[in-house]
Design a protein that fits this description.
Layout: H1 3-17, H2 40-43, E1 53-54, H3 65-79, E2 83-84, H4 98-111, H5 116-130, H6 138-144, E3 163-167, H7 172-178, H8 185-199, H9 201-209, H10 215-220, H11 228-238, E4 245-249, H12 256-266, E5 270-271, H13 273-276, H14 279-282, H15 289-301, E6 305-308, H16 314-327, E7 333-334, H17 338-345, H18 353-367, H19 386-389
Parallel strand pairs: 1-2, 3-4, 3-6, 4-5, 6-7
Helix pairs in contact: 1-4, 5-15, 7-8, 8-9, 11-12, 11-18, 15-16, 17-18
Length: 394
């Protein structure tokens, strides 16, 4: 999902400069394994030599449209090609002409569609979650295209099951980078430090020369990922019953089945894309992390309720914005304030359950309120603004 803002910004700047957009080359890494490339005839150009390579030192973060007209348009006019590197956050949200903002918004919520194989498998996933083939709605049409059928078999939805989707951000890379402690003793500390040395060498070097905040301080400030056993306490306090069907989105949980034991015991109707789809149905996506994330996105965006454990997650932010844009207020998103939740969880050994329940519910109720998009905030996460929610044509 990380390419979404990049593409929307690229489309917007292309319109601003009256240029032709060539689909960008996405980052190839150990996380996002999908390869994309420029057309062959452009690959042979030495863009750096001709001065057409533009990176984040040439265009600052959150640059205004005027910067592109002043700095980039002359390069484009001279060389007829510009290659942006590190472009994801290079266009501001405010101040910006409303027609440019609206284009970026419509690109994100209308123009961008999943490819056929993702739509088809996503529809299969929805059928097994809900108990019926997805029916036609603006949200399902956008997510599933032709695979969102126009009517429900027999016209009967009484047997449809409701489900809660939860994005558990507790992968080893996030856990290691957080510098937090999760109760696993020296074995956990050694394992995470070894992972940092390989995957986050800069962080390892910083630790040698700089006094960093303690794990306890990071937790009190809400900087630590919410562990599955903490997430289950939050869900139970909100009022989700044992019979609730829960779809877990995300990559492999650090700690595996041991970490998932508490939530699995309390919510036995726990499912994932791996349990709902057969190995052969998942095989086309097996080596592509972003495509697996797309299946999770469909399940989360269309859920009856969605809960995130990290409000800073780009995936969760995109799901939240999508549900806000298409939901009409009927698709609730649970977004805890981790700093305030941490102050409650730290007392879980002494606090009475009723008090814990009351405090968590009050916290969640406050974060469920939907407001107009704050100034300079992302329209992908906060689409409730005149340039976005109107859905008008150009």
């Amino acid at each position: 999902m990380s390419g979404t803002s990049l593409i929307c910004n690229a489309v917007t700047i292309t319109r601003l400069l009256n240029a032709t957009l060539v689909i960008p080359k996405f980052l190839y890494s150990n996380v996002w394994l999908d390869k994309r490339d420029l057309p062959v005839d452009l690959q042979s150009l030495d863009l750096e030599a001709i001065g057409s390579l533009v990176n984040d030192t040439d265009v600052m973060k959150e640059a205004k449209p005027s910067v592109y007209v002043k700095k980039i348009l002359p390069i484009l006019m001279k060389n007829r090609v510009v290659h942006f590197i590190g472009f994801g956050n290079r266009l501001s949200f405010d101040p910006i002409p409303s027609e440019i903002q609206r284009l970026r918004c419509r690109c994100n919520f209308h123009a961008l569609r999943f490819v056929r194989k993702i739509q088809e498998t996503g529809a299969l996933l929805m059928e097994r979650l809900h108990g019926y083939r997805p029916h036609s709605s603006s949200l399902e049409d956008n997510l599933l295209g032709q695979f969102a059928v126009k009517s429900v078999p027999n016209g009967n939805m009484s047997d449809a099951s409701r489900y809660l989707a939860v994005h558990l951000r507790f992968e080893i890379d996030m856990v290691a980078y957080s510098l937090c402690y999760f109760g696993g003793g020296k074995e956990e500390e050694d394992e995470l430090e070894a992972y940092r040395q390989i995957h986050f060498p800069v962080l390892t070097e910083i630790k040698k020369t700089t006094k960093l905040p303690s794990a306890a301080f990071l937790r009190s400030e809400g900087k630590c990922p919410l562990a599955p056993e903490e997430a289950v306490l939050m869900l139970a306090a909100i009022g989700f019953k044992r019979s609730t069907k829960i779809y877990i989105a995300g990559a492999e949980i650090y700690g595996g089945s041991h970490r998932m034991a508490a939530i699995s015991r309390l919510y036995p109707a726990l499912v994932t894309k791996e349990t709902l789809l057969s190995p052969s149905e998942l095989e086309p996506f097996r080596n592509f992390s972003s495509q697996l994330a797309a299946l999770d996105f469909i399940a989360c965006a269309a859920a009856d309720a969605f809960a995130m454990t990290d409000s800073g997650s780009q995936f969760s932010s995109l799901v939240q914005g999508y549900r806000m844009y298409y939901g009409g207020g009927d698709l609730p998103t649970i977004r805890p304030n981790k700093r305030r939740l941490a102050s409650i969880l730290v007392k879980n050994a002494t606090i009475e359950w009723k008090e814990f329940e009351t405090r968590v519910r009050k916290l969640i109720q406050q974060t469920k309120q939907v407001h107009e998009r704050p100034v300079a905030r992302s329209i992908y996460r906060h689409p409730r603004c005149p340039e976005c929610m109107c859905r008008t044509e150009f």
